[in-house]
Amino acid sequence: MENKRKPVSAFEPNIIITGVILAVLSAVICMQLIGNVGVTPNTSLIGAIFAMILARVPLSQLSSYKSMERQNMLQTIVSGAGFAAANCGFIAVGILWGLEKVEYILPMAIGCILGTTISIITVGKLFDSPLFPAQGAWPPGVATASAIQAGDEGGKKGRRLIEGLVLGVIGSYFKLPVAGIGIVFIANIFSMAGLGVGLVLRGYSKQIFSLFGMVDFNLGATKIPQGIMIGAGIVALLQSLYIIFKNRKNDEQLTNSVTVSSKDSKKSLVYGFGGLIAASIVTAVITGIFSDMSVSEMAVWVLWCAFSSLVAMLLVGMAAMHSGWFPAFAISTIFMTVAILLGFKPLAIAVMTGFIGSVGPCFADMGYDLKAGWILRGKSEDKEYEKYGRKQQVIIEAIGGIIGILVVLLFSKALMSQNVIPPISKVFATTITAGADPAALKEMLMWAIPGAFIQFIFGKKMVGVLFATGLLLNSPIYGIGVLIAVTVRLIFGSEFMEVRDAGLIAADGLFGFVTNLIKVFF
Fold first, then answer.
1. What is the pTM of this model?
2. Which of 120, 127, 142, 224 is the most exposed place for a label (fewest CB within 10 A)?
3. Measuring CA to CA, how many Å separate 122 from each of 62, 167, 471?
4. 132 has which bridge partners?
5. For 53-97, what is each residue's pLDDT tens digit?
Protein backbone atom coordinates (compact mmCIF):
# COMPACT_ATOMS: atom_id res chain seq x y z
CA MET A 1 0.00 0.00 0.00
CA GLU A 2 1.20 3.50 -0.80
CA ASN A 3 0.32 4.72 2.67
CA LYS A 4 2.72 2.20 4.21
CA ARG A 5 5.56 3.34 2.02
CA LYS A 6 4.91 7.03 2.63
CA PRO A 7 3.74 7.84 6.16
CA VAL A 8 2.43 11.39 6.43
CA SER A 9 3.74 13.80 9.06
CA ALA A 10 1.69 16.54 10.66
CA PHE A 11 4.64 18.90 10.13
CA GLU A 12 4.86 18.60 6.34
CA PRO A 13 5.13 22.24 5.15
CA ASN A 14 2.12 21.99 2.82
CA ILE A 15 -0.05 20.49 5.53
CA ILE A 16 0.94 22.77 8.39
CA ILE A 17 0.92 26.05 6.41
CA THR A 18 -2.38 25.41 4.61
CA GLY A 19 -3.81 23.85 7.76
CA VAL A 20 -3.05 26.86 9.96
CA ILE A 21 -4.63 29.27 7.46
CA LEU A 22 -7.79 27.18 7.14
CA ALA A 23 -7.87 26.58 10.91
CA VAL A 24 -7.99 30.32 11.59
CA LEU A 25 -10.80 30.76 9.05
CA SER A 26 -12.69 27.78 10.52
CA ALA A 27 -12.37 29.18 14.06
CA VAL A 28 -13.59 32.66 13.07
CA ILE A 29 -16.55 31.31 11.09
CA CYS A 30 -17.57 28.85 13.82
CA MET A 31 -17.44 31.63 16.44
CA GLN A 32 -19.73 33.73 14.29
CA LEU A 33 -22.13 30.84 13.82
CA ILE A 34 -22.44 29.78 17.45
CA GLY A 35 -22.67 33.41 18.57
CA ASN A 36 -25.43 34.30 16.14
CA VAL A 37 -27.47 31.14 15.69
CA GLY A 38 -26.27 28.92 18.55
CA VAL A 39 -25.00 26.04 16.41
CA THR A 40 -21.84 24.92 14.63
CA PRO A 41 -21.55 22.82 11.48
CA ASN A 42 -20.02 19.35 11.21
CA THR A 43 -16.47 20.70 11.09
CA SER A 44 -14.92 17.36 10.14
CA LEU A 45 -16.95 17.12 6.94
CA ILE A 46 -16.44 20.80 6.15
CA GLY A 47 -12.68 20.27 6.52
CA ALA A 48 -12.84 17.19 4.31
CA ILE A 49 -14.66 19.14 1.59
CA PHE A 50 -11.98 21.88 1.73
CA ALA A 51 -9.26 19.23 1.40
CA MET A 52 -10.95 17.50 -1.55
CA ILE A 53 -11.36 20.83 -3.33
CA LEU A 54 -7.66 21.61 -2.88
CA ALA A 55 -6.77 18.17 -4.27
CA ARG A 56 -8.55 19.07 -7.50
CA VAL A 57 -6.89 22.45 -8.07
CA PRO A 58 -4.55 22.00 -11.07
CA LEU A 59 -1.43 23.35 -9.36
CA SER A 60 1.67 21.24 -8.74
CA GLN A 61 2.03 22.71 -5.22
CA LEU A 62 -1.33 21.21 -4.29
CA SER A 63 -0.89 17.82 -5.95
CA SER A 64 0.13 16.26 -2.62
CA TYR A 65 -3.46 16.68 -1.42
CA LYS A 66 -4.52 13.85 -3.72
CA SER A 67 -3.38 11.64 -0.86
CA MET A 68 -6.39 10.71 1.27
CA GLU A 69 -4.16 10.70 4.36
CA ARG A 70 -3.16 14.33 3.75
CA GLN A 71 -6.77 15.27 3.17
CA ASN A 72 -7.56 13.67 6.51
CA MET A 73 -4.77 15.60 8.22
CA LEU A 74 -6.13 18.84 6.81
CA GLN A 75 -9.70 18.15 7.87
CA THR A 76 -8.42 17.24 11.35
CA ILE A 77 -6.78 20.62 12.02
CA VAL A 78 -9.71 22.53 10.47
CA SER A 79 -12.18 20.53 12.53
CA GLY A 80 -10.17 20.87 15.76
CA ALA A 81 -9.89 24.64 15.41
CA GLY A 82 -13.59 25.16 14.69
CA PHE A 83 -14.71 22.90 17.53
CA ALA A 84 -12.29 24.38 20.06
CA ALA A 85 -13.11 27.97 19.17
CA ALA A 86 -16.89 27.68 19.20
CA ASN A 87 -17.73 24.86 21.61
CA CYS A 88 -14.87 25.27 24.09
CA GLY A 89 -13.25 28.71 24.21
CA PHE A 90 -16.01 31.06 23.10
CA ILE A 91 -18.62 29.50 25.38
CA ALA A 92 -16.24 29.66 28.36
CA VAL A 93 -15.33 33.34 27.95
CA GLY A 94 -18.97 34.12 27.14
CA ILE A 95 -19.92 33.00 30.66
CA LEU A 96 -17.47 35.53 32.13
CA TRP A 97 -18.81 38.23 29.84
CA GLY A 98 -22.32 37.47 31.10
CA LEU A 99 -21.09 37.87 34.69
CA GLU A 100 -19.32 41.14 33.75
CA LYS A 101 -15.94 39.63 34.62
CA VAL A 102 -14.16 40.61 31.41
CA GLU A 103 -10.77 40.91 33.11
CA TYR A 104 -10.70 37.12 33.58
CA ILE A 105 -11.05 36.25 29.89
CA LEU A 106 -7.30 35.81 29.30
CA PRO A 107 -6.67 33.39 32.21
CA MET A 108 -9.89 31.53 31.34
CA ALA A 109 -8.66 31.10 27.77
CA ILE A 110 -5.37 29.70 29.06
CA GLY A 111 -7.34 27.23 31.17
CA CYS A 112 -9.35 26.25 28.08
CA ILE A 113 -6.13 25.62 26.13
CA LEU A 114 -4.96 23.30 28.91
CA GLY A 115 -8.29 21.47 29.16
CA THR A 116 -8.71 21.12 25.40
CA THR A 117 -5.15 19.87 24.89
CA ILE A 118 -5.45 17.29 27.69
CA SER A 119 -8.73 15.99 26.25
CA ILE A 120 -7.22 15.63 22.76
CA ILE A 121 -4.16 13.79 24.07
CA THR A 122 -6.31 11.56 26.29
CA VAL A 123 -8.59 10.40 23.49
CA GLY A 124 -5.49 9.80 21.38
CA LYS A 125 -4.23 7.47 24.10
CA LEU A 126 -7.59 5.72 24.58
CA PHE A 127 -8.72 5.35 20.96
CA ASP A 128 -8.79 1.72 19.82
CA SER A 129 -8.83 0.47 23.41
CA PRO A 130 -11.46 -1.80 25.00
CA LEU A 131 -13.21 1.36 26.24
CA PHE A 132 -13.15 3.29 22.95
CA PRO A 133 -12.59 0.68 20.22
CA ALA A 134 -11.84 1.83 16.69
CA GLN A 135 -14.53 -0.62 15.57
CA GLY A 136 -17.09 1.50 17.46
CA ALA A 137 -19.64 3.43 15.40
CA TRP A 138 -18.23 7.02 15.59
CA PRO A 139 -20.75 7.98 12.83
CA PRO A 140 -19.35 11.41 11.78
CA GLY A 141 -15.92 9.79 11.41
CA VAL A 142 -17.35 7.10 9.15
CA ALA A 143 -19.14 9.80 7.15
CA THR A 144 -15.93 11.81 6.75
CA ALA A 145 -13.91 8.79 5.63
CA SER A 146 -16.66 7.72 3.23
CA ALA A 147 -16.78 11.18 1.69
CA ILE A 148 -13.00 11.27 1.19
CA GLN A 149 -12.93 7.74 -0.26
CA ALA A 150 -15.86 8.42 -2.57
CA GLY A 151 -14.21 11.62 -3.79
CA ASP A 152 -10.99 9.71 -4.43
CA GLU A 153 -12.42 6.57 -6.03
CA GLY A 154 -15.47 7.90 -7.88
CA GLY A 155 -17.50 5.10 -9.48
CA LYS A 156 -20.28 3.50 -7.43
CA LYS A 157 -19.15 5.16 -4.19
CA GLY A 158 -19.01 8.55 -5.88
CA ARG A 159 -22.52 8.14 -7.30
CA ARG A 160 -23.90 7.05 -3.94
CA LEU A 161 -22.27 10.02 -2.23
CA ILE A 162 -23.77 12.44 -4.76
CA GLU A 163 -27.20 10.81 -4.38
CA GLY A 164 -26.95 11.25 -0.61
CA LEU A 165 -25.81 14.85 -0.99
CA VAL A 166 -28.69 15.73 -3.33
CA LEU A 167 -31.31 14.08 -1.13
CA GLY A 168 -29.72 15.66 1.93
CA VAL A 169 -29.81 19.18 0.52
CA ILE A 170 -33.44 18.78 -0.54
CA GLY A 171 -34.36 17.36 2.86
CA SER A 172 -32.46 20.09 4.70
CA TYR A 173 -34.27 22.75 2.67
CA PHE A 174 -37.57 21.33 3.92
CA LYS A 175 -36.12 21.18 7.47
CA LEU A 176 -36.07 17.38 7.61
CA PRO A 177 -33.55 15.75 10.01
CA VAL A 178 -31.39 14.22 7.28
CA ALA A 179 -28.23 14.05 9.41
CA GLY A 180 -30.07 12.13 12.12
CA ILE A 181 -31.45 9.73 9.51
CA GLY A 182 -27.98 9.17 8.04
CA ILE A 183 -26.44 8.59 11.46
CA VAL A 184 -28.98 5.85 12.29
CA PHE A 185 -27.57 3.65 9.50
CA ILE A 186 -24.05 3.95 10.94
CA ALA A 187 -24.54 4.15 14.69
CA ASN A 188 -25.62 1.61 17.30
CA ILE A 189 -29.32 1.02 16.65
CA PHE A 190 -30.23 0.62 20.34
CA SER A 191 -28.51 3.90 21.21
CA MET A 192 -30.30 5.72 18.40
CA ALA A 193 -33.66 4.26 19.42
CA GLY A 194 -33.09 5.55 22.96
CA LEU A 195 -32.16 8.99 21.59
CA GLY A 196 -35.20 9.08 19.33
CA VAL A 197 -37.63 8.13 22.12
CA GLY A 198 -36.10 10.80 24.38
CA LEU A 199 -36.39 13.48 21.69
CA VAL A 200 -40.03 12.67 20.96
CA LEU A 201 -40.96 12.41 24.65
CA ARG A 202 -39.39 15.81 25.37
CA GLY A 203 -40.76 17.56 22.30
CA TYR A 204 -44.32 16.31 22.69
CA SER A 205 -44.43 16.00 26.49
CA LYS A 206 -47.55 18.16 26.84
CA GLN A 207 -49.52 16.13 24.32
CA ILE A 208 -48.25 12.73 25.52
CA PHE A 209 -48.74 13.32 29.25
CA SER A 210 -52.15 14.94 28.75
CA LEU A 211 -53.34 11.46 27.71
CA PHE A 212 -52.63 10.40 31.29
CA GLY A 213 -54.43 13.36 32.85
CA MET A 214 -51.30 15.52 33.29
CA VAL A 215 -52.48 18.67 31.52
CA ASP A 216 -49.80 21.15 30.36
CA PHE A 217 -46.97 19.04 31.79
CA ASN A 218 -43.78 20.40 30.21
CA LEU A 219 -40.91 17.97 30.67
CA GLY A 220 -38.40 20.63 29.67
CA ALA A 221 -39.42 22.85 32.58
CA THR A 222 -38.50 20.15 35.11
CA LYS A 223 -35.19 18.70 36.30
CA ILE A 224 -36.24 15.19 35.25
CA PRO A 225 -33.96 15.05 32.16
CA GLN A 226 -30.95 16.18 34.24
CA GLY A 227 -31.79 13.61 36.91
CA ILE A 228 -32.02 10.77 34.40
CA MET A 229 -28.69 11.90 32.91
CA ILE A 230 -27.06 11.83 36.38
CA GLY A 231 -28.25 8.28 37.06
CA ALA A 232 -27.41 7.00 33.59
CA GLY A 233 -24.07 8.80 33.69
CA ILE A 234 -23.04 7.25 37.01
CA VAL A 235 -23.85 3.74 35.76
CA ALA A 236 -22.11 4.42 32.43
CA LEU A 237 -19.02 5.56 34.32
CA LEU A 238 -19.03 2.38 36.43
CA GLN A 239 -19.50 0.28 33.28
CA SER A 240 -16.52 2.04 31.70
CA LEU A 241 -14.33 1.44 34.72
CA TYR A 242 -15.39 -2.21 34.73
CA ILE A 243 -14.32 -2.58 31.09
CA ILE A 244 -10.93 -1.02 31.83
CA PHE A 245 -10.09 -2.46 35.24
CA LYS A 246 -11.59 -5.95 35.29
CA ASN A 247 -9.17 -8.86 35.15
CA ARG A 248 -9.37 -10.30 31.67
CA LYS A 249 -8.33 -13.93 31.25
CA ASN A 250 -8.31 -13.39 27.51
CA ASP A 251 -6.30 -10.16 27.69
CA GLU A 252 -3.73 -11.44 25.19
CA GLN A 253 -6.45 -12.30 22.70
CA LEU A 254 -8.04 -8.86 23.23
CA THR A 255 -4.71 -7.13 22.66
CA ASN A 256 -4.58 -8.73 19.20
CA SER A 257 -7.82 -6.97 18.23
CA VAL A 258 -6.94 -3.48 19.50
CA THR A 259 -3.80 -1.36 19.49
CA VAL A 260 -4.25 -0.06 23.05
CA SER A 261 -4.38 -2.63 25.86
CA SER A 262 -6.42 -2.48 29.06
CA LYS A 263 -3.20 -1.89 30.99
CA ASP A 264 -2.27 1.10 28.84
CA SER A 265 -5.84 2.43 29.13
CA LYS A 266 -5.58 2.41 32.91
CA LYS A 267 -2.34 4.38 32.75
CA SER A 268 -3.87 6.90 30.33
CA LEU A 269 -6.86 7.48 32.60
CA VAL A 270 -4.60 7.99 35.63
CA TYR A 271 -2.31 10.35 33.71
CA GLY A 272 -5.33 12.16 32.27
CA PHE A 273 -6.81 12.68 35.72
CA GLY A 274 -3.45 13.88 37.02
CA GLY A 275 -3.18 16.30 34.13
CA LEU A 276 -6.67 17.63 34.82
CA ILE A 277 -5.82 18.16 38.50
CA ALA A 278 -2.69 20.10 37.52
CA ALA A 279 -4.58 22.12 34.87
CA SER A 280 -7.38 22.88 37.35
CA ILE A 281 -4.86 24.21 39.86
CA VAL A 282 -3.13 26.35 37.22
CA THR A 283 -6.47 27.72 36.00
CA ALA A 284 -7.57 28.53 39.55
CA VAL A 285 -4.27 30.25 40.39
CA ILE A 286 -4.11 32.45 37.28
CA THR A 287 -7.77 33.47 37.61
CA GLY A 288 -7.23 34.29 41.28
CA ILE A 289 -10.27 32.40 42.56
CA PHE A 290 -8.21 30.79 45.36
CA SER A 291 -7.62 34.18 46.98
CA ASP A 292 -10.75 34.04 49.15
CA MET A 293 -10.97 30.26 49.68
CA SER A 294 -9.84 28.17 52.64
CA VAL A 295 -7.47 25.26 52.03
CA SER A 296 -10.33 22.76 52.27
CA GLU A 297 -12.41 24.79 49.78
CA MET A 298 -9.45 24.86 47.39
CA ALA A 299 -9.08 21.08 47.63
CA VAL A 300 -12.79 20.46 47.02
CA TRP A 301 -12.84 22.87 44.07
CA VAL A 302 -9.81 21.24 42.40
CA LEU A 303 -10.99 17.67 42.95
CA TRP A 304 -14.55 18.38 41.80
CA CYS A 305 -13.32 20.29 38.75
CA ALA A 306 -10.88 17.52 37.74
CA PHE A 307 -13.29 14.67 38.50
CA SER A 308 -16.13 16.39 36.63
CA SER A 309 -13.87 17.00 33.63
CA LEU A 310 -12.77 13.36 33.51
CA VAL A 311 -16.35 12.08 33.76
CA ALA A 312 -17.47 14.62 31.15
CA MET A 313 -14.79 13.36 28.75
CA LEU A 314 -15.78 9.72 29.21
CA LEU A 315 -19.55 10.31 28.94
CA VAL A 316 -19.25 12.65 25.96
CA GLY A 317 -16.84 10.23 24.30
CA MET A 318 -19.10 7.21 24.77
CA ALA A 319 -22.19 9.06 23.57
CA ALA A 320 -20.27 10.35 20.55
CA MET A 321 -18.92 6.88 19.76
CA HIS A 322 -22.30 5.17 19.89
CA SER A 323 -24.50 7.81 18.27
CA GLY A 324 -22.60 10.81 16.90
CA TRP A 325 -24.45 13.00 19.43
CA PHE A 326 -22.83 14.21 22.61
CA PRO A 327 -24.54 16.02 25.52
CA ALA A 328 -21.49 18.10 26.50
CA PHE A 329 -23.41 21.19 27.59
CA ALA A 330 -26.03 19.19 29.48
CA ILE A 331 -23.29 17.37 31.39
CA SER A 332 -21.54 20.67 32.16
CA THR A 333 -24.87 22.00 33.48
CA ILE A 334 -25.18 19.09 35.90
CA PHE A 335 -21.68 19.56 37.32
CA MET A 336 -22.22 23.32 37.47
CA THR A 337 -25.44 22.78 39.44
CA VAL A 338 -23.61 20.64 42.00
CA ALA A 339 -20.88 23.31 42.26
CA ILE A 340 -23.57 25.91 43.01
CA LEU A 341 -25.01 23.67 45.73
CA LEU A 342 -21.53 23.19 47.20
CA GLY A 343 -21.57 26.93 47.89
CA PHE A 344 -18.78 28.21 45.66
CA LYS A 345 -18.86 31.85 44.63
CA PRO A 346 -20.11 32.81 41.13
CA LEU A 347 -16.65 33.48 39.65
CA ALA A 348 -15.29 30.14 40.90
CA ILE A 349 -18.32 28.35 39.44
CA ALA A 350 -17.96 30.17 36.12
CA VAL A 351 -14.28 29.24 35.82
CA MET A 352 -15.04 25.62 36.71
CA THR A 353 -17.91 25.44 34.19
CA GLY A 354 -15.75 26.93 31.45
CA PHE A 355 -12.95 24.48 32.15
CA ILE A 356 -15.23 21.42 32.24
CA GLY A 357 -16.91 22.59 29.04
CA SER A 358 -13.55 22.80 27.28
CA VAL A 359 -12.72 19.09 27.60
CA GLY A 360 -15.76 17.29 26.18
CA PRO A 361 -16.38 18.63 22.64
CA CYS A 362 -12.81 18.22 21.38
CA PHE A 363 -12.68 14.73 22.92
CA ALA A 364 -15.63 13.80 20.68
CA ASP A 365 -14.23 15.61 17.65
CA MET A 366 -10.84 13.93 18.01
CA GLY A 367 -12.59 10.56 18.25
CA TYR A 368 -14.47 11.24 15.00
CA ASP A 369 -11.28 12.30 13.23
CA LEU A 370 -9.33 9.28 14.50
CA LYS A 371 -12.10 6.99 13.27
CA ALA A 372 -11.86 8.58 9.82
CA GLY A 373 -8.09 8.18 9.88
CA TRP A 374 -8.35 4.56 11.05
CA ILE A 375 -10.57 3.73 8.07
CA LEU A 376 -8.39 5.59 5.56
CA ARG A 377 -5.21 3.98 6.92
CA GLY A 378 -6.56 0.49 6.37
CA LYS A 379 -8.29 -0.35 9.67
CA SER A 380 -5.09 -1.31 11.53
CA GLU A 381 -3.90 -3.81 8.92
CA ASP A 382 -0.48 -2.34 9.62
CA LYS A 383 -0.59 -1.57 13.34
CA GLU A 384 2.67 0.39 13.41
CA TYR A 385 1.51 2.58 10.55
CA GLU A 386 -1.84 3.10 12.27
CA LYS A 387 -0.15 4.12 15.53
CA TYR A 388 2.11 6.57 13.70
CA GLY A 389 -0.79 8.10 11.76
CA ARG A 390 -2.89 8.39 14.90
CA LYS A 391 -0.07 10.20 16.69
CA GLN A 392 0.23 12.69 13.82
CA GLN A 393 -3.51 13.33 13.92
CA VAL A 394 -3.39 14.00 17.66
CA ILE A 395 -0.56 16.47 17.12
CA ILE A 396 -2.32 18.37 14.37
CA GLU A 397 -5.68 18.37 16.21
CA ALA A 398 -3.93 19.80 19.29
CA ILE A 399 -2.41 22.52 17.10
CA GLY A 400 -5.89 23.23 15.71
CA GLY A 401 -7.37 23.35 19.20
CA ILE A 402 -4.77 25.85 20.40
CA ILE A 403 -5.31 27.98 17.28
CA GLY A 404 -9.06 27.93 17.94
CA ILE A 405 -8.68 29.23 21.51
CA LEU A 406 -6.16 31.89 20.41
CA VAL A 407 -8.65 33.09 17.80
CA VAL A 408 -11.21 33.37 20.61
CA LEU A 409 -8.78 35.55 22.54
CA LEU A 410 -8.30 37.81 19.54
CA PHE A 411 -11.91 38.23 18.44
CA SER A 412 -14.24 37.37 21.34
CA LYS A 413 -14.43 40.82 22.92
CA ALA A 414 -15.18 42.49 19.59
CA LEU A 415 -17.94 39.97 18.85
CA MET A 416 -19.47 40.03 22.34
CA SER A 417 -19.52 43.82 22.37
CA GLN A 418 -21.87 43.49 19.37
CA ASN A 419 -23.99 41.02 21.37
CA VAL A 420 -22.66 38.05 19.40
CA ILE A 421 -22.58 35.63 22.35
CA PRO A 422 -23.23 31.86 22.44
CA PRO A 423 -26.77 31.34 23.82
CA ILE A 424 -25.58 28.58 26.16
CA SER A 425 -23.11 31.04 27.74
CA LYS A 426 -26.03 33.30 28.64
CA VAL A 427 -27.88 30.34 30.16
CA PHE A 428 -24.84 29.35 32.24
CA ALA A 429 -24.30 32.94 33.45
CA THR A 430 -27.97 33.36 34.38
CA THR A 431 -28.04 30.04 36.25
CA ILE A 432 -24.87 30.88 38.20
CA THR A 433 -26.28 34.27 39.17
CA ALA A 434 -29.59 32.74 40.30
CA GLY A 435 -27.83 30.53 42.86
CA ALA A 436 -28.70 27.24 44.52
CA ASP A 437 -32.07 25.50 44.54
CA PRO A 438 -32.18 22.49 46.95
CA ALA A 439 -35.55 21.43 45.51
CA ALA A 440 -33.93 21.04 42.09
CA LEU A 441 -31.24 18.78 43.55
CA LYS A 442 -33.87 16.63 45.27
CA GLU A 443 -35.79 16.25 42.00
CA MET A 444 -32.64 15.32 40.08
CA LEU A 445 -31.58 12.72 42.63
CA MET A 446 -35.04 11.15 42.61
CA TRP A 447 -35.06 10.77 38.82
CA ALA A 448 -31.47 9.52 38.79
CA ILE A 449 -32.83 6.12 39.87
CA PRO A 450 -34.78 5.33 36.65
CA GLY A 451 -31.91 6.77 34.60
CA ALA A 452 -29.48 4.38 36.29
CA PHE A 453 -31.88 1.46 35.75
CA ILE A 454 -32.28 2.12 32.01
CA GLN A 455 -28.52 2.42 31.51
CA PHE A 456 -27.88 -0.76 33.50
CA ILE A 457 -30.50 -2.86 31.66
CA PHE A 458 -29.09 -2.10 28.19
CA GLY A 459 -25.45 -2.43 29.24
CA LYS A 460 -22.69 -0.58 27.42
CA LYS A 461 -24.94 0.40 24.48
CA MET A 462 -25.39 3.80 26.20
CA VAL A 463 -29.18 3.69 25.83
CA GLY A 464 -29.71 5.43 29.19
CA VAL A 465 -27.29 8.28 28.43
CA LEU A 466 -28.68 8.76 24.91
CA PHE A 467 -32.29 8.64 26.19
CA ALA A 468 -31.36 11.37 28.68
CA THR A 469 -29.66 13.31 25.88
CA GLY A 470 -32.91 13.25 23.91
CA LEU A 471 -34.84 14.49 26.94
CA LEU A 472 -32.44 17.42 27.26
CA LEU A 473 -32.83 18.53 23.62
CA ASN A 474 -35.97 20.20 22.29
CA SER A 475 -35.98 18.82 18.75
CA PRO A 476 -38.97 16.49 18.25
CA ILE A 477 -38.66 16.43 14.45
CA TYR A 478 -35.22 14.84 14.86
CA GLY A 479 -36.75 12.27 17.16
CA ILE A 480 -39.40 11.35 14.61
CA GLY A 481 -36.80 11.12 11.83
CA VAL A 482 -34.53 8.95 13.99
CA LEU A 483 -37.32 6.53 14.96
CA ILE A 484 -38.53 6.21 11.35
CA ALA A 485 -34.95 5.49 10.23
CA VAL A 486 -34.53 2.93 13.04
CA THR A 487 -37.69 1.16 11.83
CA VAL A 488 -36.48 1.19 8.21
CA ARG A 489 -33.09 -0.19 9.23
CA LEU A 490 -34.73 -3.00 11.24
CA ILE A 491 -36.80 -4.01 8.21
CA PHE A 492 -34.43 -3.44 5.29
CA GLY A 493 -30.97 -3.41 6.86
CA SER A 494 -28.34 -0.76 6.18
CA GLU A 495 -26.47 -1.94 3.06
CA PHE A 496 -28.60 0.13 0.68
CA MET A 497 -27.60 3.27 2.61
CA GLU A 498 -23.82 2.70 2.55
CA VAL A 499 -22.07 5.96 1.50
CA ARG A 500 -25.48 7.54 0.93
CA ASP A 501 -25.72 7.93 4.72
CA ALA A 502 -22.45 9.88 4.63
CA GLY A 503 -23.92 12.05 1.87
CA LEU A 504 -26.96 12.86 4.03
CA ILE A 505 -24.77 13.84 6.97
CA ALA A 506 -22.45 15.91 4.76
CA ALA A 507 -25.37 17.65 3.06
CA ASP A 508 -26.91 18.59 6.40
CA GLY A 509 -23.59 20.07 7.55
CA LEU A 510 -22.95 21.94 4.31
CA PHE A 511 -26.51 23.27 4.02
CA GLY A 512 -26.48 24.44 7.62
CA PHE A 513 -23.03 25.95 7.18
CA VAL A 514 -24.00 27.95 4.08
CA THR A 515 -27.43 29.09 5.30
CA ASN A 516 -26.15 30.11 8.73
CA LEU A 517 -23.24 31.91 7.14
CA ILE A 518 -25.69 33.87 5.01
CA LYS A 519 -27.72 34.76 8.13
CA VAL A 520 -24.59 35.99 9.89
CA PHE A 521 -23.13 38.13 7.12
CA PHE A 522 -26.18 39.12 5.11
1. 0.83
2. 224
3. 32, 37, 29
4. 127
5. 777 777 776 777 788 898 999 999 999 999 899 889 999 999 999
